[in-house]
Amino acid sequence: MQNTIPTRRRFLQSTAAALSAPLILPGRVWSQESAPSKRITLGFIGMGKMNGGHLKNFVNRDDCQVLAVCDVDTTRRENAKSIVEKTYADKKNAEYKGCAAYNDFRELLDRKDIDAVVIATPDHWHAFIAIAAVNAGKDVYCEKPLTYNIHEAVTLTEAVRKTDRVFQTGSQQRSSKEFRVAAELVRNGIIGELKTITTSFGDPAPPYNKPAEEMEPGLDWDRWCGPGPLVNYNTFLCPRGVHDNFPNWRMTREFGGGMITDWGAHHIDIAQWGLGVDGGGPVEVRAPEKWETAKRGAQLVYANGVVLTHAEGKGCSFFGSEGEVHVNRGKFELIRGGKTIHKFWDKEVDKGTSLDREVILTERELLADAKVKLYNSKGHHQDWIDSIHSRQRPICDVAIGASSVIACHLMNFAYYYGANMKWNPETHTIVSGGDAKWLTRESYRGEWKV
């Protein structure tokens, strides 16, 4: 596709002329703290609940400017555009009409005046759009789970390395101190030799089986299905318009991976951080008994012998020879020698303290002289922006996001196929006990092949 908007200046000029209304130029909309030459220009692709939250954060930053949004749903697309333009207008109490809205993400990526994109489409679109984005010279923030399958994770990582783009996976738990401190405790042997890990999240995904529903005008359903099969429309997959919930496409095998890839991409990511296998992964998969109906019990085994089990628990729990660490969002517990050392788990029970206090005390008392210090991000969005300026890899670089989602897909093999298999995390190949066809789609639809 030919680029019809070669420069940011020409875009601003043509937009102003077309609208015949005042356009607030960047230097007047934003404070003098961020010069236009240092401001990162952004496009947003997929304007559901998750990217709605990202948009509201970035549109209020002085060091960024949102130039475009994209969604296949007209209502969501126009709502996002109006949020951007109203926010910028309110900054100086003057009219602003400088945010474009697209149905086709390729038109947004064609714009040379956009530096970086934030992708929060359904999972089955992540890899194709992210690869197109880095090939177009954009830095990328892409939501987790990073890809729909293992083949896509490997291919996307290769594309990012080839183009040398800054790529942040939206696994924001890495930027929360309770998770970093938990991983540092494990890495520094504070709970002794690590033996087992329990990760707690919901069920694997069944195949999609919903009946066809009549679809309101304004949704490009063919493009929504994209690389996946063209299935019957149902609001189960894609509620229309602006909504404040996470749609159930994630609970289908055709478009997501159930809670194994959804919440599993968070907690297994932290488990692998504590294990020190970022960029690597497990060497064995074990299926639960009665795997055809099982919803818990799948296991991943790592080269050091540590077994990670999907079970009911506290989020991400590390069990060592001398203690335990449990961590979840806003929750933290350290046990040594059978005694609770620091804990904030339930605000109604753990009164008189706070998460910050317990985590900070743990860090001061046990990690002050730690040999292993992990990446300390002050915020997931900020870390990405800082990395764009420095051209360094962010806290959840593409290879980390890829290794975490690959582990999730391997766990799903245990539930989908009863897999008891050996895996090579370096070559991303099945050693024994599995089928290579599991690593990718049976077929990609139309032009959307990864």
Automatic annotation (TrEMBL):
PROSITE patterns: TAT. Gene3D superfamilies: Dihydrodipicolinate Reductase, domain 2, NAD(P)-binding Rossmann-like Domain. InterPro entries: Gfo/Idh/MocA-like_OxRdtase_N (IPR000683), Gfo/Idh/MocA_oxidrdct_glycsds (IPR050463), GFO_IDH_MocA-like_dom (IPR055170), NAD(P)-bd_dom_sf (IPR036291), TAT_signal (IPR006311). Residues 241-290 form the GFO/IDH/MocA-like oxidoreductase domain. Residues 41-170 form the Gfo/Idh/MocA-like oxidoreductase N-terminal domain. Pfam families: GFO_IDH_MocA (PF01408), GFO_IDH_MocA_C3 (PF22725). GO terms for molecular function: nucleotide binding. This is Gfo/Idh/MocA family oxidoreductase.
